[in-house]
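Project outcomes to date are best conveyed with an example. Our students and postdoctoral researchers have been running inverse folding experiments weekly, and each run begins with a structure described purely in tokens. The record below, which covers 372 residues, was selected by the lab manager from last quarter's runs and is presented without edits.
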């Protein structure tokens, strides 16, 4: 019997960091440990100097078609025709018209349907024009949470049996670090000794203005409160999202740490007193789990998949009300017993998120789809 030919689209890793790219990278690495009998074609942007080929049965395929191009579906189909793939997994959810015998997509969230006002006109046109076609065209769909699966069924009229949930994992680099390692890693960046932390892409749905207003209120009652560090890559409308720093007189109290190197992230989480994730919507909320894996308690909003992912191991706030965000931060800073309890339960909870399990579920679906 011929080796099954499985394609995984990793072109996005050339363009951006963040959730989808990390998902793709970790899935490939975990699959390499699980499966030595399939032939994997890892699709790269031809300009990408980095290789995402982790094992002998994985090979690099260079492609010219850029991500999110208006002709991507057709152009990618032409480039893939000669590879005769049995199944193609598109982690960025838009598959080609015909890149393989079977197609699988991952839908990470539906934020562009929930909050269209938070998108640029170009991105909104790209996502909204293609999502309904993509779910019809795909032979199967991965969702990261039961919350997202339910939304796909309700908002896009997809049969639930067409969707498989596989929760994401946590990179083992996210762990409790000794103080000496934290200080040595963070020293070149001249951060405060201890701080409140936000980590994510700087874009509207992350609700950074709401966090800044909450922090400004907190400073009026607690002028000695810890500084706030905002770590993340700039997304769309980043300038307007960060404008309240100056408008609220917080320039001396907020440190902007853009493009945090991945190797620094574990120490950044470890050095924080707590993580605040005030998003209007999350399809998963990876920074919350990464922070908990580092022993850092979290304040998160009661929206999207965050309650499903964080469970009873965080403090919940209303993203529409800066007062609520302020109260959540204050509660965690002042209630020592709560802080210690969430630190310990968060560590145990984060340990249940495994990339190996994510890949096991993906591999089972690949094989079933190939045989169908």
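After processing, the design step wrote out the following sequence:
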């Amino acid at each position: 019997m011929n080796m099954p030919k499985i394609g995984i689209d990793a072109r996005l890793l050339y363009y951006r960091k963040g959730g989808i790219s990390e998902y793709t990278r970790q899935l490939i690495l975990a699959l390499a440990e699980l499966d030595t009998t399939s032939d994997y074609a890892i699709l790269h942007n031809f300009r990408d100097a980095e290789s995402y080929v982790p094992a002998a049965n994985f090979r690099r395929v260079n492609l010219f078609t850029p991500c999110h191009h208006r002709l991507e579906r057709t152009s990618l189909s032409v480039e893939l025709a000669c590879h005769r793939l049995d199944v193609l997994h598109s982690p960025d959810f838009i598959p080609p018209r015909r890149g393989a015998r079977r197609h699988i997509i991952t839908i990470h969230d539906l934020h562009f349907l929930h909050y269209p006002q938070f998108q640029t006109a170009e991105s909104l046109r790209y996502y909204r024009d293609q999502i309904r076609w993509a779910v019809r065209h795909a032979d199967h769909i991965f969702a990261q949470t039961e919350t997202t699966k339910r939304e796909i069924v309700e908002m896009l009229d997809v049969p639930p049996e067409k969707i498989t949930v596989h929760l994401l994992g946590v990179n083992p680099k996210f762990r409790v670090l000794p103080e000496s390692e934290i200080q040595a890693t963070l020293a070149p960046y001249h951060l405060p000794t201890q701080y409140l932390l936000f980590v994510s892409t700087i874009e509207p749905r992350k609700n950074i203005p709401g966090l800044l207003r909450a922090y400004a209120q907190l400073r009026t009652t607690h002028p000695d409160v810890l500084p706030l560090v905002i770590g993340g890559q700039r997304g769309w409308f980043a300038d307007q999202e960060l404008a309240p720093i100056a408008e609220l007189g917080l320039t001396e109290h907020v440190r902007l740490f853009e493009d945090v190197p991945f190797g620094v992230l574990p120490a950044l989480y470890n050095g924080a007193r707590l993580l605040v994730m005030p998003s209007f919507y999350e399809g998963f909320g990876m920074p919350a789990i990464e922070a908990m894996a580092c022993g850092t308690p979290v304040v998160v909003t009661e929206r999207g998949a965050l309650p499903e992912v964080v469970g009873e191991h965080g403090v919940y706030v209303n993203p529409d009300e800066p007062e609520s965000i302020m109260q959540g931060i204050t509660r965690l800073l002042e209630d020592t017993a709560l802080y210690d309890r969430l630190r310990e339960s968060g560590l145990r909870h984060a340990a249940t998120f495994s990339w190996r399990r994510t890949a096991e579920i993906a591999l089972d679906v690949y094989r079933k789809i190939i045989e169908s």
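The chain has a mean pLDDT of 94. The CA atoms of residues 17 and 233 lie 8 Å apart. The training component of this project remains on track.
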